[in-house]
From TrEMBL:
It comes from Paenibacillus mucilaginosus 3016. GO terms for biological process: carbohydrate metabolic process. InterPro entries: 6-hairpin_glycosidase_sf. This is Uncharacterized protein. It comes from the Bacteria.
Length: 574
């Protein structure tokens, strides 16, 4: 590989490599390579613990995340662990086609097919099939989708699951079916639409498409999960308005609306999405729910917020490109555990508990993970409100965080009907062009064209205006200049039209940076954020355990380094 000088700025594919390290490190090699679910980093020494999500959910998240991370980064590290995760995942299936939790060493539960787990299972099988085309995986996925359809309770216009757990003998309560109970339809049904739709797109599965239709109808018209104004139903029966499952459901239904061309469905999602944004900070912190977990941000929720914003942006709501970029640049990447200096491992180390808890090299093994519960200004959530401190890492957030990196990375550059669009001003390579972003140090983006492009456009942040935008085009020793003040240069408010581009051309776009301060509210707590462009470079008051946003360095000129962008032979669309 030939290296060159590139800006030393955020590179999502490198972050994916760090996440891969954590996905390998959290495997419990003494317990069949079942990954640990959570970690407490505030104790001395820190420890990792198994949990009731270890099976279909955790393995599904890890298989999906590792495949996406490898596609982004090209890393081969930990393939032996990934093979064990894949084998374990397939072993959890029973003859009925569902994935079952196993008996926990501490005897906390009996085997059951948890409906939340099934979403991670079909998600991972879909990515696995996309990556390999393995017929064994397709056979398992077809059987799984057929089972999800078979066990659904079918009303005239909606389908649902009447309990959180299905057993080999059927639903735990026939009375629950007769009463048409559907506890947390968002968690059990709504979120399933996203992987089921992609599975249909990949294979043509009609069972998957049918589930998407009836689950979407359930959520929008019958479930009561969302109120008429788009707000989340915060009743206890609806998990107090749990953000991850609600936002994951919005992501799913936005995709289904875009797939079916249902403008009313997309508009419904936007209404709910805009309400959700009022409960989040501009840099991407989200509440856990509206009551007991309100102060606990899950990386999972932010990734759902990112994914929904991307679908809305592609559907014509172009203002959300900027929203997504702020989330990627700030709380998603700031929530990734790369600095371990604050994790203390001194003192006498207790003995490990086989199949349950370990103290072995926890800090090093979890490097690259994403925060399970974070405060707006701290990796650890240790507030007086809500539940106080619970845990710092959750495996679901590691899998989701990796998927969030992929969703951002795969939408930096897109192509549609001959138009190549640079949507997010982050660095990456592609078959069409390479993007080098000098943000947040300089308002500068360099595009190096790899093949002829019929029409090229680049999104300019809303804070950059248009009168002072300049661009230079260089090709074969000749250079031309242009500016954003030309009215014909703009389309869809934010996109600078550059017209045809030729292979070998170098286009440099510059614009003034916005320096501003905002007051951010997170569940009745206020913070002052200092922004440089779309990056928060300081946040006060500062955290006390592992402060976020307090160590970001910015310079007048972007630092450079030796590097190279990855250009995959085929772009994955998720």
């Amino acid at each position: 590989m030939t290296y060159r000088q590139i800006p030393d700025t955020l590179l999502l594919e490198e972050r994916a490599g760090h996440a891969l390290h954590a996905m390998v490190g959290m495997a419990d090699r003494d317990f069949g390579y079942v990954p640990f679910f959570s970690a407490n980093l505030m104790t001395e020494p820190p420890y990792m613990t198994h949990g009731d999500w270890d099976y279909g959910s955790s393995h599904g998240r890890m298989v999906d995340g590792m495949l996406l991370a490898r596609h982004m980064s090209g890393e081969t590290f930990g393939e032996d662990v990934e093979a064990r995760y894949r084998a374990n995942l397939l072993s959890f299936f029973k003859e009925d086609g569902l994935s079952y939790r196993q008996i926990n060493p501490k005897g906390h539960w009996e085997p059951n097919a948890n409906l939340i787990d099934q979403r991670a299972v079909i998600l991972s099988l879909t990515t696995w099939l996309m990556a390999t085309g393995d017929p064994q995986v397709k056979e398992a996925a077809d059987k799984h989708v057929a089972a999800l359809k078979r066990i659904a309770v079918k009303e005239r216009d909606v389908w649902y699951y009447p309990a959180s757990e299905y057993k080999e003998g059927g639903w735990p309560s026939a009375n629950g079916v007769q009463l048409r109970l559907a506890p947390d339809p968002a968690a059990f049904c709504g979120r399933l639409v996203m992987p089921l739709l992609k599975y249909h797109e990949l294979t043509g599965s009609q069972d998957a498409l049918e589930l998407c239709r009836y689950f979407s109808e359930l959520i929008i018209h019958r479930s009561g999960v969302f109120n008429k104004d788009g707000s989340f139903n915060d009743a206890l029966a609806y998990r107090s308005g749990h953000f991850h499952t609600r936002l994951g459901t919005l992501d799913a239904i936005a995709r289904f609306g875009a797939f079916t061309g249902d403008a009313a469905m997309i508009a419904w999602v936007q209404k709910c999405y805009d309400w959700a944004l009022t409960k989040c900070t501009a840099f991407g912190w989200t509440p856990g729910d509206l009551h007991e977990q309100a102060y606990e941000h899950e990386t999972c929720s932010l990734v759902d917020l990112i994914s929904t914003g991307l679908t809305l942006a592609k559907s014509g709501y172009v203002q959300y490109w900027g929203t997504v970029e702020r989330f990627l640049r700030n709380h998603l990447t700031e929530s990734q555990l790369l600095d371990l200096s604050w994790v203390k491992s001194g003192g006498e180390t207790p003995e490990n508990i086989h199949g349950w808890q370990t103290y072995d090299s926890v800090a090093e093994r979890t490097r690259g993970s994403f925060a399970g519960y974070s405060a707006p200004n701290d990796f650890c959530c240790d507030v007086n409100e809500g539940r106080g401190h619970t845990s710092d890492l959750q495996l679901c957030c590691l899998g989701s965080g990796t998927r969030g990196l992929f969703m951002g990375w795969s939408h930096i550059v897109t192509e549609h009907q001959g138009t190549v669009s640079v949507n997010l001003l982050l660095s990456r390579g592609s078959q069409w062009l390479d993007v080098s972003s000098y943000l947040p140090h300089e308002g500068k983006v360099v595009l190096e064209v790899n093949r002829d492009i019929a029409h090229l456009q680049v999104r300019i942040p809303e804070w950059a205006g248009f009168t002072k935008i300049r661009f230079t085009r260089e090709l074969e020793g000749a250079a031309t200049e242009g500016s954003g003040s030309e009215p014909s240069r703009w389309l869809n408010r934010h996109f600078l039209q550059l017209g045809p581009a030729r292979a070998g051309e170098r286009i440099t776009v510059t614009f003034p940076l916005s320096m501003r301060r905002t007051i951010e509210t997170a569940m009745n707590q206020t913070f002052e954020a200092q922004w440089r462009g779309d990056d928060v470079v300081d946040l006060t008051p500062r955290g006390t355990k592992h402060p976020l946003y307090s160590g970001r360095q910015v310079f007048d000129r972007a630092p450079m380094r030796e590097g190279q962008y990855r250009r995959p032979e085929k772009e994955w669309v998720w």
